[in-house]
Design brief:
With about 700 residues, this protein is α/β, with parallel strands linked by helices. The chain has 4 domains: about 10-30 and about 140-210, no CATH class; about 35-130, Nucleic acid-binding proteins (OB fold (Dihydrolipoamide Acetyltransferase, E2P), Beta Barrel), CATH 2.40.50.140; about 245-445, P-loop containing nucleotide triphosphate hydrolases (Rossmann fold, 3-Layer(aba) Sandwich); about 455-610, 3-Layer(aba) Sandwich (Rossmann fold). About 40% of the residues lie in helices and about 20% in strands. The chain contains 27 helices and 24 strands. It has a 7-stranded mixed β-sheet with strand order 6-7-4-3-2-5-8. The chain has a 7-stranded parallel β-sheet with strand order 13-14-12-15-17-11-18, sandwiched between helices. The longest helix has 26 residues, at about 215-240. It is globular. It binds adenosine-5'-diphosphate and magnesium ion. Magnesium ion binds near residues 299 and 394. Belongs to the helicase family. RecG subfamily. It catalyses: Couples ATP hydrolysis with the unwinding of duplex DNA by translocating in the 3'-5' direction; ATP + H2O = ADP + phosphate + H(+). Keywords: ATP-binding, DNA damage, DNA recombination, DNA repair, DNA-binding, Helicase, Hydrolase, Isomerase, Nucleotide-binding.
Length: about 700
């Protein structure tokens, strides 16, 4: 590393050398090149940012409705504008004393006193102080490190002659030219210089919206690092050992026995994914496959088949689910399906008593248990499998990064690796699959079992809930069951619990002859299980629940779901919740109750859910809204590596970069390595999750 900077606050940002600084790329820019009159700024209430200047003609600390600082400025045209702060320091009061000349930047809105800017950026300058001639970069930072400090350090670092060496081009010119024919791809050092200090002659708009060639270079660099790292992971996997399980046709042996015992025939889509999975299982390196299929498409039975196949080959199998309720349900179902075939099943969750846990661990390590079902307790310390050959991770995206890393380590530790099948109802758009999961094969169940009637979704105002309650009786009279989902209360578990308890009481009161149960996250797991069991067996007719039932729960006789304050839930959650009904042949209904004030986004969300049951479409809307991190549950993993690219817009670049990484790895492996360490450094660990 060259040119140590000596200012210690920057250490907090990991900016220790000129190279670190150069690679700390602006997250956005401020345009301080233009000055408007106050009249212009006031004239356009469009959420646009303006920079104006004027003299302070009033400064006052107000106490109503709460303590705040009010400042008024007047420009040369005699136009006036209020500036307002809800938090402020004495130093600010001093800076903005009567008569001071200020240059301020912010959005104008209609305030109580008149047009105002709330918390604008303020500089005290002379009226004729020159404006910056180019964009001002804004950097990501942490508390205690000011933009001014970072800007200074980076401006200095960029001048460091040592950068010519530490930022020298790794990527072979001819390879770049071949991959991107006809495109301008600047050198890395010049791209970084442009991004830190755009010059007047640069196209500032394309710098701001990240389409400038300098951005292209940086996006390419990051994507390339990520692709290389994924390809390496893939290579590593292909070099590992796993038990090769001969491909078994479903018509033979124990698999056939199992299939015959099922009360249904597999759908065409289920048979197709089975073919794909069985091919993978027959290889001598570990499978890494994602089984995708919309809510209710029948993924569990595929997991059971594969587990049985592994057990038939003398291995142990494991199924891990993100919640106890779901794990418990899998346990019951697989017991029913597989125990008659002689499969011994162990059950392991965090809530087991010490003695039970020890017994389960003993079963697992001695090989007495063929199949182990549980929560992430399965990957915790003290659990040693005798011969794990196949593992299923259900609702994979619901596991946190930490748990996935733990799992990976567990898997990395052994000599003979296990085949992995991840399952998820959240469809991953192609772009995302390519960037985040280059080392993942994907199978899709694209067909629901026959005889399902579509779920009718209704939007109902909360005021009409009385009618909804009366409507429940008609459904119950047909022998059907009902879920009543309580509103999400993000800020407070306690409040959510209270709401659930109250809703339960209110329903019990309103429907005295109906058997109504309550399940929520605070119940002990035994209590949870017993309530769920009563619902499964039909002893409970209405189940009042929090989102603990969100994933996986399968009670085909439930045909009506009411979701309170549906506007508080996101796309994926509503889709998952709704998927709890419509699992039998009965016509199913999902009622989305909504409160008074609906934001535009919430309106659109509920309308989309009303109009479609297509999980893929819903996931795309969700992606557009929230970005890939949340969708994949990888907020801190893959996401962190791709800070500058809009995956939706730059799909072409992803494809090109993938080609480039393949070419690099096969022809210039050392360059690939250098590139990777320049960009990833310590972040590489996260990618493995
Ligand atoms: P998911 O894909 O959401 O995990 P499940 O595996 O829970 O779905 O399956 C939903 C329901 O459909 C279960 O009751 C399951 O037994 C049933 N099922 C699965 N496959 C079929 C099929 N081929 N025909 C009829 N019902 C099926
Ligand atoms: Mg499932």
């Amino acid at each position: 590393m060259t040119g140590k900077t000596n200012s210690s606050p920057l250490d907090k940002l990991g900016l220790r050398s000129s190279l670190d600084c150069a690679l700390h790329i602006p997250i956005r820019y401020e345009d301080e090149t233009k000055l408007s009159t106050i009249a212009e700024a006031i004239g356009s209430f469009g959420g646009l940012t303006y920079q104006v200047q004027g003299y302070v003609i009033r400064q006052e600390v107000m106490f109503r409705p709460r303590r705040q600082l009010l400042v008024q400025i007047r420009d040369d045209d005699g136009q006036e504008l209020f500036l307002r702060w809800l938090n402020f320091y004495p130093s600010q009061q001093k800076q903005m004393s009567m008569g001071a000349h200020l240059r301020v930047r912010g959005e104008v809105r209609d305030g109580y006193y008149g047009p105002e800017m709330v918390h604008p950026v303020v500089k005290a300058v002379t009226p004729d102080a020159p404006l910056p001639s180019t964009l001002t970069p804004v950097y990501s930072t942490v508390a205690g490190v000011s933009q001014t400090l970072i800007r200074k350090a980076i401006a200095k670092a960029i001048q460091d002659p040592g950068l010519q060496i530490s930022l020298k081009e790794f990527l072979p010119n001819e390879l770049i030219a071949k991959t991107f024919p006809g495109l301008t791809i600047p050198t890395l050092i010049s791209a970084l210089q442009t991004l830190h200090q755009p010059s007047k002659s640069d196209d500032l708009e394309s710098i701001q919206n990240r389409t400038h060639p300098a951005w292209r270079r940086v996006q390419l660099e990051e994507l390339l690092a990520q692709q290389i790292s994924l390809q390496q992971a893939r290579q590593k996997r292909l070099n590992r050992q796993a038990v090769s399980m001969s491909p078994a046709p479903l018509e033979r042996g124990v698999l056939n026995q199992f299939i015959k015992s099922l009360p249904f025939d597999l759908t065409g889509a289920q048979k197709k994914v089975w073919q794909e999975i069985i091919q993978d299982l027959s290889r001598a390196y570990p499978m890494n496959r994602l089984l995708q299929g919309d809510v209710g498409s029948g993924k569990t039975v595929i997991a059971a088949l594969a587990a049985l196949h592994a057990i038939d080959h003398g291995c142990q199998a494991a199924i891990m689910a993100p919640t106890e309720i779901l794990a418990e349900q899998h346990y019951r179902k697989l017991k029913l399906w597989l125990e008659p075939l002689g499969v011994k099943i162990a059950w392991l969750t965090g809530s087991l008593k010490v003695k039970e846990k020890r017994e389960a661990q003993e079963q697992i390590s001695s090989g007495g248990a063929h199949l182990v079902i549980g929560t992430h307790a399965l990957i915790q310390e003290g659990v040693e499998f005798a011969k794990l050959g196949f593992a299923v991770i259900d609702e994979q995206h619901r596991f946190g990064v930490k748990q996935r890393l733990q799992l990976q380590q567990k898997i990395d530790d052994v000599e003979v690796h296990c085949h992995q099948l991840m399952m998820s109802a959240t469809p991953i758009p192609r772009t995302l699959a390519m960037t985040f999961y280059a080392d993942l094969e994907v199978s899709v169940i694209d067909e629901l079992p026959p005889g399902r009637s579509p779920i009718v979704t209704k939007l109902v105002k909360n005021e009409r809930r009385q009618e909804v309650v009366s409507g429940l009786l008609a459904e119950l009279a047909k022998g059907r069951q009902v879920y009543w989902v309580c509103p999400l209360i993000e800020e407070s578990d306690t409040l959510q619990l209270k709401t659930a308890v109250e809703t339960h009481e209110a329903l019990v009161k309103a429907l005295p002859n109906v058997k109504i149960g309550l399940v929520h996250g605070r119940l002990k797991s035994q209590e949870k299980n017993s309530v769920m069991q009563s619902f499964v067996s039909g002893d409970i007719q209405i189940l009042v629940a929090t989102t603990v039932i969100e994933v996986g729960v399968d009670v085909p006789n439930a045909s009506l779901m009411v979701i309170e304050h549906a506007e508080r839930f996101g796309y994926a959650q509503l889709h998952q919740l709704r998927g709890r009904v419509g699992r039998g042949s009965a016509e199913s209904v999902c009622i989305l109750l909504y409160g008074q004030e609906l934001s535009l986004a919430a309106k659109e969300r509920l309308q989309t859910l009303k109009e479609t049951q297509d999980g893929f479409l819903i996931a795309e809307r969700d992606l557009a809204l929230r970005g890939p991190g949340e969708l994949l549950g990888s907020k801190q993993s893959g996401d962190a590596m791709l800070r500058f690219i809009d995956l939706q817009k730059e799909q072409w670049l992803i494809e090109k970069t993938q080609q480039l990484s393949v070419a690099l790895l096969s022809n210039y492996p050392e360059i690939a390595e250098q590139h990777l360490s320049r960009w990833l450094g310590s972040r590489a660990e996260y990618l493995k999750a």
